[in-house]
Amino acid sequence: MDLLPDAEQDAIATSARALIERYDAPARLTALMSHDNPHDNPHDDSLWKQAAEQGFLSLGLSEHSGGAGLGMAEESLLFRELGRGLVPGPFLGTVVAGHLAHRAGNDALAERFAAGETAGLAEVDAAGTIRTQDAFDPAWWVVVAESDVALVEADSVAVVDGGTAVDPAVRLAELRLSGQPVHTLTQREYDLRAHASILVAAMLTGICEATRDQSREYVQTRRQFGAPIGSFQAVKHRCADMAVRAEALVAMVSLAALALDEDADDAALLWPAVRALAASYAITSAGDNIQNHGAIGYTAELSAHLFQKRSHSLSHLLVTPSELRHAVLDAPATRPAPKEH
Amino acid sequence: MDLALSPELRDFQEEVRTWLQENVPAEPRPPLSPEARAYDLAWQRRQYDGGWAGISWPTEYGGRGLSLLQQMIWYEEMAWAGAPYIGVCFVGINHAGPTLIARADGALKSFHLPRILRGESVWCQGFSEPGAGSDLAGLSLKGEVAGDHVVVNGQKIWTSFAQYADYQELLVRTGRGDRRHDGITWIVNDMSLPGVTVRPITTMTGESELCEVFYDDVRIPLSNVVGEIDRGWSVAMSTLSFERGTGFMKDQVELTRLVEELIAAARDRVDRRGRAVIADESIANRLATARAETAALRAMTLTNIARNARTDQPGPESSMMRLFFAELGQRVARLAVDVLGSESLVRTEGAGWTKEWHHSYASTIAAGSKDIQRNIIGERLLGLPRGR
After folding, report:
1. Residues A251, B293: contact at Cβ < 8 Å?
2. What is the per-residue pLDDT for A45?
């Protein structure tokens, strides 16, 4: 029973972070926003290829699906780095597509996703409208309906522009499907919402950590009234609260990831719980980070607004706040029972 | 990273569960009174007889010397078994005892430690003063060395259970020093000595769990000094490194259980208009958030234990969990009262949700106020500069 990453897990996180830092998504996104063409693609092949080569797209897939045979703990560590680094691109769609393919018995296809073939995530609403944030021209679409998920080839999908997003990292679109999905699974066969929600929570956790760290650095150097502003209690306490939120989420993402992997009794409570808290904490920390930076935080020049926008975009993926609250309240009360070694 | 327990730990868990099932008192703890003191000591004695006293104390001092994971299991099972609050035994088991173990000489240890474990003595803490709360180093209770005694004059305040205590861990200003932290002495006070007067303070809960203690020429033997004269601050600090976070498992489980109870209550109860309490969306929202946050607290507690297992010196990270716990506890206490509706206006004899709500105001004041905790997190964890 240990909720901290071991050395191998730390190594995955560290190497992902190094790759992502070199990529410098915030700088690319900021540059993108100053262009006149909002349709420039922020998603660059270079990071994607390296991520695929290092096995980051398939950490949780079994080895004969082309994966590393690890689990949700490792996937969460990767997605935490993706969130921290504000990385755009269809990582979530592609990772869940690999799982979907594997559970549908198509390991050959799962291997292709592991190798970097792209899949975007899309959702059908009650009116039948299919929306996505991933319109980067992926090769496949994972279409999530209320009680099933479908894997659809891109050439049977028409992509209709969904308007320019406030978040420069996403591409909004509506999809029109023609033709049949290659695979369809029920929620019982693959609870994609639960799986994806934990990975989204991991990204939001990375955002909480990044905003905490950006604030911490700034308030140590910015001086007013003859002192670093981090020495003023109001600022210091705001940063302390950012640290507490990040700590809570890091811990809870780990717990939820392990519980879902092991199909533990409390998984049904933990995935909506961490998803709900992560959305709330991330947007709060993103706001506090802007506040701590004063007027500079309000500009498009600093990356602070990008964390705010990413938190916003992520909060609208696959769930509504109301259904999360119901899921949390309706989950059965359990006494978490430890598994055998 | 894993959630599994080894077969040995599972066996241990079974052993703990069985013992608790057979030994947790059936009667609830009485409200604070001499009966409560007797109840607490009896429960401590029962644990001692069962071999469960001082679970985190080294075996050479009569403790069980359990590993961190075993301690975690013990506390978790205690909470699920509805074991009573440690009450007046708190300071002895969790504070004074560990301090004596860390810093006292053989005579003090061999006298006091067995009595604490056996539930034969009650301890209280003489730290805070009217002029020294968060700023503990500003304490001014005067101690003058006269022959082989320290003669103490002045006052302490906020001393929990002083009216039921036999001994006291007492911080006295015996000397001067360049820093205020110098010149402080940590000494064992015998509460029955002449010159010691205890005055209970009624708190907003209606109970008198806190006291003022007055010292009028109290003569304490020098042999009761722990560590050295004037070097008591480091003794007080040594207590902190004993706390490894396992005790929080009990608090965390109890809070989780309370939230489950509240959800059930909100489903069963109706408000004054006959409407189900849970139909109120704002209550339902707060319940959902509370349920999610108690799960987060569990995760933070486990993380803290894992961290402490990897290092000898607990770091400032635990302040985050403490702060989160205190504030979450307050939100839950307030939510409980809102679920209860106007029934919450009635004063209850035993623990009731309104009393717990009142009691919860103390949790962000005592043992490091929430503002101090935020300072610690900001300064020691984030490295932010001290302010003025």
Report:
1. no
2. 83
Catalytic residue numbers of B read 243
Q: Give the HSE-up count for residue B137: Cα atoms under 13 Å, Cβ half-sphere.
A: 13
Residue B333 in this model has a pLDDT that exceeds 60 = yes
Cβ atoms B341, B294 nearer than 8 A: no
Residue of B167, B188, B189, B187 whose CA lies nearest to B121: B167
The predicted structure's pLDDT at residue B247: 87
CB–CB contact A239 B292 (8 Å): no
The shortest CB-CB distance from A244 to any of B1, B5, B320 is to: B320
Alpha helices in A24-71 (DSSP H): 25-33, 45-53
Asked whether the beta carbons of A318 and A196 are under 8 A apart, the reply is yes
Cβ of B292 and A231 within 8 Å?
no
Pairwise pLDDT comparison (B243 vs A295), residue with the higher score: A295
Neighbours of B223 (CB within 10 A): 12
Query: For chain A, how far is it from start to end, CA to CA, in angstroms?
Result: 9
Do the Cβ atoms of B374 and A237 come within 8 Å? yes
Query: Are the beta carbons of B96 and B242 closer than 8 angstroms?
Result: no
CA distance A146 to A129: 12
The helices-and-strands tally (H runs, E runs) of chain B is 12, 8
C-alpha span between A307 and A313 (Å, rounded): 10
Could you list the beta-strand ranges (E) of B67-120.
Answer: none
